[in-house]
Amino acid sequence: MPAAIAASAALTGLGGGEATFAALLRGESGIRELRFPHRERLNVRRGCHAQPAGDGTPLRASGWLAACVRDAIASSGLDPHRERVVALVGTGLRELHAVERCALDDFATETLHFAGAVRRACPAIADVVTLSNACSAGGHALALAQDLVELGEADAVVAAGADAMTESMLAMIGRVAAAPSDHLRPFDAGRTGTLLGEGAAALVVVPDRDGRPALARLLGTGLSCDARSETAPDADGIARAMQDALERAGRSALEVDLVLAHGTGTTLNDPLEAQLIARALRAGASRPLITAVKGAIGHTSGAAALCSVDVAIHCLRRGVVPAIAGLRSPLAEAEGLGLVVGRPVEADVRLAQVDAFGFGGVNSVTLLERAA
């Protein structure tokens, strides 16, 4: 049974959700020089810091999350004092940045999770669960949110994601790069690897047709956990998530108009994702259109799925799809696909797919439909 998205708020290195989408349409990127020490030792020089930059406090992701939750609830029309509202927060790193910056006895360990941040934004939310499911965590939160409203366990669910860059994650991507990357180029033949971003997003999920205005219908999220490799994507696992999404949504592969791809700009992900889109969706040059946002906002880890969902909602509502930032020369595996290159494309987008794949093989694929 479908659910509805009553509100969505996001914060990236390009600003809030509206500002981010406008910048994507202009072809802008928020990737800049890192504000981290030891850049040369990390072998990473660039990334996409969230705005505002912050005041140096360690719990940066919590601050962005609280702002997004507050904005989403305010625009949704929810009354958390009268309605049963649950919050699910997906993250890859939780507040690891704080661990790196401070001794643990400087603050309570529960602040490494996000219950406090959510309750600062909305004290009436009693139940807050933090999910640490790598780079598909936001998609998992969205799947569980839909389950809760469908089963009547909540009147509304805040599905959110948040992550801040950490030196340990930067060191990890630096170790697998021959040289520091200056750009993140999804699906480009000359891609040189991923770059990190940071930020947060929060969506309010409610029962379909409950009387509230809806930004989009949430048809379903397909999940899989292949666990074949610590880091490498697995074709069968991702394909299962894509098929699961279509089956849950009751839609045909030929109905998908737009894919918000995971698009990490890495050696392994991009060609495999292109091949699987072609196979699972029987894709061609005319449909579906394919875009990706990490070339402009970096890889936002646990917030990535919901940042892409926020962009997908704008595409559904406005009938325009931004180009893939950083893409110049498509890789061979994407030949014949509907990659949006160079400039935005106006399109009648009714059904959008959002891909998110995480380390360890945790995959999520969400299908959204334009609200009536």
Q: What does this 3D model show about the protein?
A:
The chain has 11 helices and 16 strands. It is of the alpha/beta class and 372 residues long. The strands form 3 sheets. Strands 1, 2, 5, 6, 7, 8, 9, 10, 11, 13, 15 and 16 form a 12-stranded mixed β-sheet that branches. A two-stranded antiparallel ribbon has the order 3-4. Strands 12-14 form a two-stranded antiparallel ribbon. A hairpin with a 3-residue loop joins strand 15 and strand 16. The radius of gyration is 19 Å and the shape is globular. The two termini are 16 Å apart.
Give structural attributes:
372 residues, alpha/beta, Peroxisomal Thiolase, Chain A, domain 1, 12-stranded mixed beta sheet, two-stranded antiparallel sheet, 16 strands, 23% strand
Distance between the termini: 16 Å
How many structural domains?
Answer: 1
Strand composition percent: 15-25%
Global mean pLDDT: 90
Question: Which helices and strands appear, and what pairs or packs with what?
Answer:
Layout lengths: L2 E10 L2 E2 H10 L5 E2 L5 H4 L3 E2 L12 H17 L8 E7 L4 H6 L13 H7 L5 E6 L4 H14 L5 E8 L3 H9 L23 E9 L8 E10 L9 H15 L8 E3 L8 H12 L8 E3 L2 H4 L6 H15 L1 E2 L16 E2 L5 E2 L4 E8 L3 E9 L2
Helix pairs in contact: 1-11, 3-5, 8-9
Short description:
The protein is α/β, with parallel strands linked by helices and 372 residues long. The protein has helices spanning 17-26, 39-42, 60-76, 96-101, 115-121, 137-150, 167-175, 235-249, 269-280, 294-297, 304-318, and strands spanning 3-12, 15-16, 32-33, 46-47, 85-91, 127-132, 156-163, 199-207, 216-225, 258-260, 289-291, 320-321, 338-339, 345-346, 351-358, 362-370. Helices cover 30% and strands 23% of the residues.
